[in-house]
């Protein structure tokens, strides 16, 4: 159990690292503000998607659309074809009859004769089921008029309902990603970790790229839905998406602009931190060059683990959410097996519960140089890669992977990080017994004995210390330290300052 003294020491250490230089302070403030702004923006997007999904779900439910039905939109502008299926259309394993029917084809003139209409559903809507099979009536409290939707119109609305549901899942994933990215950024400062700086920067680049893609995707769907739902003569002839897309598009433009500005700032701050940390060794005691190289491998390994924990759990959670709460639950014949795979991966690894064992097991095995535990970690990681690779054999999983690019990105990123973690784990394992664990234990022992970190740059060719630019950090006794025969040998071998000589004061010549 952590004592109050240990908590105070840890907080003091974190504060000293954050305020070490102006660059570290600005990087911390920037990371916090970026996390806050992005979290707020994606919360707005979640609210927009939540309202739109509730509206569309009310219509499809009143229209009696079976929960096992899925939609399949294909083609380009002017040649859009929307199909509704009660199974995955794959044409494999003897699927002689295509389990789909066409509910809209822009190359065919449905000639409904219905002029384009508008309906302000954001002021409230009552969905009334009529006697005609699958047809509904929309009534607005703000207007005495009502809108009649045919069965075919209701069937076409299943596609946007399913797509908006996925968009809501994406919004939640991005909200949690911002907090995770902020945590990695803070860890990079506290540990002077070059790999964590690079990891945070690469993640921001990927997030910015996705935000640009999301803007294009929104514009594409806005044009496609205008062709399917809004134009005169279409089954719906109802302008129900203009306000939704206009609002969402404006928020996404703000999100992309914020990402681009943040990425520019992150590039500058990360470059400055990389120059500062490129020669950093251990914070407690000077380390040989080969130990510094081993430590960088360890930090890179830890950075992959920390990012992998979020990506793997988020990707698996989205997949399980699709399995349990969409039409896939009715279509899939192997849902229990998929859930068992998720529980095995996310809940229990080698005796660890609730959280993936990658972070606790991998970190502990490498930092303590536990050979058997490291081998167990590598075996588990290989098993997970194999298991999730086998998932591509599943038609249901391949369908979801292709139809929902966001899940596909998380799946590919997770597999890549797993492979990188295995490679780095093997490299760390090959460097066991070369002094890395001893230096880490020395640092922990010094921290536990009330030694406080002071920051110096040491040049072996000079006798003076430079307090302006950090390169190496050494512990200096700033208050009386109790040393007993039970103290670690690292402490017993250190010179003890008399109480009258503390706290340490830098000389005026520095």
What does this structure look like?
The structure is a single chain. The chain is 59% helix and 9% strand. By secondary structure, it is mostly helical. A 3-stranded antiparallel β-sheet has the order 1-2-3. The chain has a 3-stranded antiparallel β-sheet with strand order 5-6-7. A two-stranded parallel ribbon has the order 4-8. Mean pLDDT is 76; it is low at 280-285, 348-356, 452-481 and 494-510.
pLDDT < 50 runs, ≥5 residues: 280-285, 348-356, 452-481, 494-510
The radius of gyration over CA amounts to 29 Å
Mean pLDDT: 76
The largest sheet is: 3 strands, antiparallel
Shape by Cα distribution: elongated
| Total beta strand runs | 12
Portion in strands: 5-15%
Helix share of residues?
Answer: 55-70%
Oligomer: single chain
The end-to-end span amounts to 41 Å
Produce a short descriptive summary:
The chain contains 15 helices and twelve strands. The model is unreliable at 280-285, 348-356, 452-481 and 494-510 (pLDDT under 50). It is elongated and about 80 Å long.
Keywords:
510 residues, single chain, disordered C terminus, 3-stranded antiparallel β-sheet, 15 helices, elongated, mainly alpha
Describe the secondary-structure layout.
Layout: H1 4-18, H2 22-62, E1 70-74, E2 81-85, E3 100-105, E4 117-118, E5 126-129, E6 136-139, E7 146-149, H3 151-156, H4 158-190, H5 194-230, E8 238-239, H6 242-277, H7 289-325, H8 328-331, H9 335-346, E9 348-349, E10 352-353, H10 358-367, H11 371-390, H12 395-403, H13 405-430, H14 436-448, E11 452-456, E12 472-476, H15 489-492
Parallel strand pairs: 4-8
Antiparallel strand pairs: 1-2, 2-3, 5-6, 6-7, 9-10, 11-12
Helix pairs in contact: 2-4, 2-6, 4-5, 4-7, 5-6, 5-7, 7-9, 7-10, 7-13, 10-11, 11-13, 12-13
């Amino acid at each position: 159990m952590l004592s109050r003294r240990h908590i105070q020491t840890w907080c003091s250490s974190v504060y000293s690292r954050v305020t070490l230089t102006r660059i570290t302070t600005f990087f911390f403030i920037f990371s916090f503000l970026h996390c806050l702004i992005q979290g707020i923006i994606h919360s707005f997007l979640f609210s927009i998607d939540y309202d739109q999904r509730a509206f569309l779900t009310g219509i499809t439910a009143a229209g009696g659309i079976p929960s096992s039905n899925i939609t399949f939109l294909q083609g380009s502008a002017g040649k859009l074809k929307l199909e509704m299926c009660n199974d995955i259309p794959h044409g494999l394993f003897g699927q002689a009859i295509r389990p789909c029917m066409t509910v809209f084809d822009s190359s065919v003139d449905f000639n409904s004769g219905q002029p384009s209409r508008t309906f302000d559903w954001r002021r409230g809507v009552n969905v009334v089921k009529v006697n005609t099979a699958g047809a509904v009536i929309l009534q607005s409290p703000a207007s005495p008029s009502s809108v009649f939707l045919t069965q075919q119109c209701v069937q076409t609305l299943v596609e946007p309902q399913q797509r908006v549901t996925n968009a809501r899942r994406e919004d939640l994933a991005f909200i949690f990603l911002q907090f995770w990215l902020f945590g990695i950024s803070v860890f990079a400062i506290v540990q002077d970790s070059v790999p964590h700086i690079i990891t945070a920067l690469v993640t921001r680049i990927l997030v910015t790229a996705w935000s640009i893609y999301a803007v294009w995707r929104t514009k594409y769907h806005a044009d496609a839905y205008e062709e399917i739902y809004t134009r005169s003569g279409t089954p719906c002839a109802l302008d129900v998406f203009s306000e939704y897309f206009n609002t969402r598009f404006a928020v996404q433009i703000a999100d992309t602009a914020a990402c681009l500005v943040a990425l520019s700032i992150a590039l500058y701050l990360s470059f400055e931190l990389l120059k500062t940390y490129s020669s950093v060794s251990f914070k407690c005691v000077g380390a040989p060059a080969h130990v510094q190289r081993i430590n960088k491998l360890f930090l890179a390994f830890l950075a992959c683990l920390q990012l992998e924990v979020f990506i793997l759990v988020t990707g698996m959670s989205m997949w399980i959410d699709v399995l349990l709460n969409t039409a896939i639950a009715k279509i899939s014949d192997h849902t229990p097996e998929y859930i068992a795979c998720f529980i095995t991966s996310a809940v229990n690894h080698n005796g660890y519960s609730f959280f993936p064992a990658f972070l606790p097991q991998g970190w502990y095995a490498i930092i303590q140089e536990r050979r058997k535990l490291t081998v167990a970690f590598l075996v588990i990681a290989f098993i997970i890669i194999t298991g999730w690779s086998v998932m591509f054999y599943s038609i249901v999983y391949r369908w979801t992977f292709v139809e929902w690019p966001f899940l596909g990105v998380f799946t590919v990123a997770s597999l890549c990080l797993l492979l990188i973690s295995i490679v780095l784990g093997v490299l760390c394992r090959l460097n066991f017994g070369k002094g890395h664990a001893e230096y880490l234990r020395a640092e922990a022992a010094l921290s536990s004995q009330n030694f406080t970190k002071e920051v110096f740059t040491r040049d072996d060719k000079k006798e003076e210390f430079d307090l302006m630019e950090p390169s190496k950090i050494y512990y200096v006794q700033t208050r009386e330290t109790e040393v007993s025969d039970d103290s670690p040998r690292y402490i017993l071998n250190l010179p003890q300052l008399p109480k009258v000589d503390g706290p340490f004061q830098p000389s005026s010549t520095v």
